[in-house]
Amino acid sequence: MEASHDSTGNAVSRPPSLRRRLLTFLLIPTMVLMLLDTAFVYLVALHYSNRIHDHDLAVSTSGLAKALQDGRSGGRLNHEARLLLEYNPNGRSFYSVRSLRHGFISGSVMLTPVSRAVRFGAPPMLSNAIVDGLAVRVASVLIPSMGEGGDALVVSMAETLRDREERAQEILLITIPIQALLFIVLLALVWKGVQVGLRILDPPIRRLALRERNLEPISGPDIPVEILPLTRTIDGLFARVQKLVSLQDRFVADAAHQLRTPLTGLAMHVERAVDAKSDVDLRHAMAHIQALTGRVTRSATQLLSLARVQGLPDTMAPMARVDLAKWVPAAVASRVPDALQAGVDLGYEGDTEVVLVDAQSNALQELLDNLIDNALSHVKRDGVITVSLRTGTKPGAEACIAIDDDGPGVAADILPRLGERFFRAPGAPEGGSGLGLAIVQRIADAHGAFVAFTRSGLGGLRVDVVFPVVGSTDLP
């Protein structure tokens, strides 16, 4: 986030701007490249200026050497010639004539080539030197001495680098306005290009702005590939919101469906209690009110449970490794007091080996509680309910939690409908809501398990909940 300041001087965070970032990332490198290009132009101009001046210096040195040979002056020049050689309106010039045998003969300064590899008949040798604190360019040529046989003269001419640098600077000054104009044009093109490029975001923005309750996907053929991940994420969010809205609408419809009848009866019996003429009528009405209140409470609780599990796995806590061989017996044992109160024999049979599944323990507890509650509501006093756990021996096998009861059971043609919301089999006891097995089905789906309803060997209903087993047998 970028920061700015309001009228009171307080810092105000400013959201990042895509346009500003694009312009920054484009224009700063462009400016750096333009500066580098300007420096490159100067270096190229200086290079060609050096080449031209080196050529002129070499020609002048060769001409001086030829004049000395033709004049037979023994390496000495008259005063007028010396003035012409040293005159340079754009800097200073120097020359020297040195004998290999006798040393310095004539000149303005003593110029010595950096390399002594000067040969007869070779082109003038160019080198750099320092004269009177000035950097100079030196050209040297070797000629035979006309005055003394066997001797040779090194003829050298030098000039300062000022004129070379001035020529390069003149070229640079010519190119700077051109470079500046080019940068301004490029700036305008980049600015316009960014604006035009960002217009491709307008269609999805308009589609979003025109929506109120429409949660259809916004992705389309006009969405650029660069923002497809964003639009797909938004589409996924819309899908989840649509699912939650559907669940909310379904919950409201379910609540109205499930609570309408008992609330109507409750209102009727409250009215009867108010109008009761005797204690017997009052107690009779209050008994109905108590029963209906319990039914409404149970229905509301199961409706909330169904609404919660319908949102799984989106709203479920993270799954963890659960050892069913330890967890199921403990969960069954916690329900034994309820079974004893109902006069039912609740037992457990199962493997003792480690049986690992990925699950959410609270959701598993709710699943098993609903299965046991369903069985308790259907068996008679002195009935039998058996919870069992079976699993394969190889990694990737399946673990099965089964609940058998000796109740009246369910007809074979009714079995496929068990697990539907509000479905109650014919002959089911009063007070049920038809939501318990639906909750079991939703929790199983969230865990990747499946539920099967069959006839039990005890004579009643058998419910199998089959979970995929984790390959490893190591608890975390």
Task: Give a structural overview.
The chain is an alpha+beta fold. It folds into three domains: 1-202, no CATH class; 225-309, Orthogonal Bundle (Helix Hairpins), CATH 1.10.287; 318-468, Heat Shock Protein 90 (2-Layer Sandwich), CATH 3.30.565.10. Helix content is 49%, strand content 19%. It contains ten helices and 14 strands. It has a five-stranded antiparallel β-sheet with strand order 4-3-7-6-5. The protein has a five-stranded mixed β-sheet with strand order 9-11-12-14-13. A two-stranded antiparallel sheet has the order 1-2. A hairpin with a 6-residue loop joins strand 11 (384-391) and strand 12 (398-405). The model is unreliable at 472-476 (pLDDT under 50).
In short:
With 476 residues, the protein is α+β, with helices and mostly antiparallel strands.
Sheet/helix structural class: alpha+beta
β-strand percent reads 15-25%
Number of separate strands = 14
Query: What topology, given as strand order, has the largest sheet?
Result: 4-3-7-6-5
Q: What proportion of the residues is helical, as a percent range?
A: 40-55%
Intertermini distance: 41 Å
Enumerate the spans where pLDDT stays under 50 for 5 or more consecutive residues: 472-476
Rg is 51 Å
Largest sheet: 5 strands, antiparallel
**Tally of contiguous helical segments:** 10
What is the helix/strand order? Answer: EEHHEEEEEHHHHEHHEEHEEHEE
Query: How would the global form be characterised?
Result: rod-shaped
Q: Whole-number average pLDDT?
A: 78
The tally of domains stands at 3
